């Protein structure tokens, strides 16, 4: 295994850039095609709600795929599984571009997610390999900065390409991104943790490792709380085309700009998180950010129930919710991985699977409860956030009892 200091020396900025773009592969694959829902529905002669199942299948693929990559990253190192996953993503993206039916598109989106999700698992494990807790939360914030470029640029690029070239073009764009990342990883990224032959790929040891991670109180508390709260973002992604384009009448271009504006809240707060970490611990920050997300989520629901929302009120509350997420995500992620060194890949995979599993569930529920109003989206945001807060409160008590403090 290479010396971690050698990996970092003089190359930290390049490393963070590559890891950030890899982390963005999932959001990029979502954001670029959202504005195409109406045209995809029209071409395949189905409803927009039916097209949203291609989004749900993508989330499911990411959730399942991350569980596969965890043991592979621990056994074969970080780089080889990354390269294989990016090849799968590239080929599936090309398949999506020429899909002859909505059912095939839904299936290929699942395969695309299974390939691409390695770009979401490996960076977290690499950060755990190279940085201690006080540094890792800051690095995760920097990753969010790069990650946040996707929802600002991608919807606008996607909507422009869809208007000019059709919805198929965005999947060719995604294939190009996959090829670029493959070349970057192959030629530039250095290995942060070499192969470990002591890591077994047999079902029983893999299950035992995941169970060890899952039953760790600190992991359970922060991974579940963070994932449940983050599920609100996926409910927003799934429900926002209907809410903003159908209910509030925005055009594809206006929707793209609004999507980017809301994402800017996540970017801004993630960088403020770096400053906050100079004076507060990750635990103290999460203790404030998660309850605030619950407050904004419940306010969204109350206004929806009484039909009091204007486009300004819903955008303002979603913006504040996103701002809180910029504090919750990097700190809950860093705290989840603290107990693990050897099993960092599996822990990262399990955390990612939880995030995307709850994300898939929340996005699917938006479609299930769709009734032509804002309530399914806002209600699911509030419900998942509240569950996250409950897990956080109960889990923190158990951690204190275990530590004797």
TrEMBL record:
GO terms for molecular function: sodium:proton antiporter activity; xenobiotic transmembrane transporter activity. It is a multi-pass membrane protein. Keywords: Cell membrane, Membrane, Transmembrane, Transmembrane helix, Transport. Residues 15-400 form the Major facilitator superfamily (MFS) profile domain. Belongs to the major facilitator superfamily. Bcr/CmlA family. PROSITE patterns: MFS (PS50850). This is Multidrug transporter. GO terms for biological process: xenobiotic detoxification by transmembrane export across the plasma membrane. The chain crosses the membrane at residues 12-30, 50-70, 82-102, 108-127, 139-165, 171-189, 210-237, 257-276, 288-305, 311-329, 349-369, 375-395. InterPro entries: Efflux_drug-R_Bcr/CmlA, MFS, MFS_dom, MFS_trans_sf. It is found in: Cell membrane. Its main location: membrane. One of its GO terms (cellular component) is plasma membrane.
